[in-house]
Amino acid sequence: MLSTYSSPFVLSSSCCSPPHPFLLAPAYSPPRPLPAIPDPDEIDDLALFRRATLAADAGSGGGDGGAVAASLRRRPAAQPKVAFLFLTNSDLSFAPLWERFFRGHERLFNVYVHADPSSRLLLAPTPSFRRRFIPAKATQRASPTLISAARRLLAAALLDDPANAFFALVSQHCVPLRPFPSLYRALLSDPPAAAGRRRHHRSFIEILSGEPGLWDRYVARGDAVMLPEVPFHRFRVGSQFFVLARRHAVLVVRDRRLWKKFRLPCLRSMKDSCYPEEHYFPTLLDMQDPQGCTRYTLTRVNWTDSVGGHPHTYRPWEISGDLIHELRRSNSTYSYMFARKFSPDCLDPLLAIADSVIFRD
């Protein structure tokens, strides 16, 4: 005979009734996601991206360009230009080195900077960076906010100058490895188009599949959350830093279908597998135009002793001509043009070898 016992979880309909299983079980707690992108930020971005898409479709600089482009200088279409998109949350410590890189090529490039609003930039920007900051929103690791920031930069560049043909995303820790003409030639050296086809510039973006841990990255937002838009066999990974051809920049800014998946926050329990900015761009371009991408990045990164998802950070005592030559080498047809990650105090030793090594082929 079952004994009775006093408990607030026992049903009162019968003194001998067993405890109700649902009342004894612990309350179910659904997995907690990381913070999502605020709705006002998303609404602002959609309006910006719509203007940029319309401007690109019209083949113009976008009329007044809205608030984002209001302070950016305008030029008539000319030779193809490279838009350098700096994504930063700290000082642009290597601006003097980039000035050396840009010197004499002012008609072939534009600079755009997205600086996290919480960052305090203590160093006055050098001429190429002055008044080149776009309205920015907060960014953080393990968050699609880094995708949004890159898309804002692309949109601002599309609105600002119709001559922007290539869009190079770099960080404050990136430095150039070769002179500007070397980069320009590499970007323009597309293979001849097939008979009857228009010649298109290609994008330099790393696109990888079958990488270790890819499944954990795919389910970082939850099981089956990416379906049906992004089945696992179409999910890709690659470097956050790329050089996109103009048509691909427009494709990214226009996208809504994949973005509605990648904008979802990761689960807190999967934070260590959450790198949306390394997945969205390679997945989107591999699904939309795989033949138009080199599948290769122009930015060299040293992952041999990474810590907490951060690559090796070069220090002043490591800077030498031999290091620059080593960082340029690749297994691809193209040499690396940029490298990261360098500590801010590397500026002086880098400037010391700028003319004799970095900007000499």
Automatic annotation (TrEMBL):
Instruction: Name any one Pfam family assigned in the record.
Output: Branch
Q: Mind listing the GO molecular function terms for this protein? A: glycosyltransferase activity
- Entry membrane topology: Single-pass type II membrane protein
**Where this protein primarily resides, as one coarse class?**
membrane
Entry GO CC: membrane
Q: Which UniProt keywords apply?
A: Glycoprotein, Glycosyltransferase, Membrane, Transferase
Q: Where in the cell is it found?
A: Membrane
Q: Which domain of life is it from?
A: Eukaryota
InterPro entries hit by this protein:
BC10-like (IPR044174), Glyco_trans_14 (IPR003406)
Q: What is this protein called?
A: Uncharacterized protein LOC109708930
Which organism does this record belong to?
Ananas comosus
Q: What is the lineage of its organism?
A: Eukaryota, Viridiplantae, Streptophyta, Embryophyta, Tracheophyta
Gene behind this protein: LOC109708930
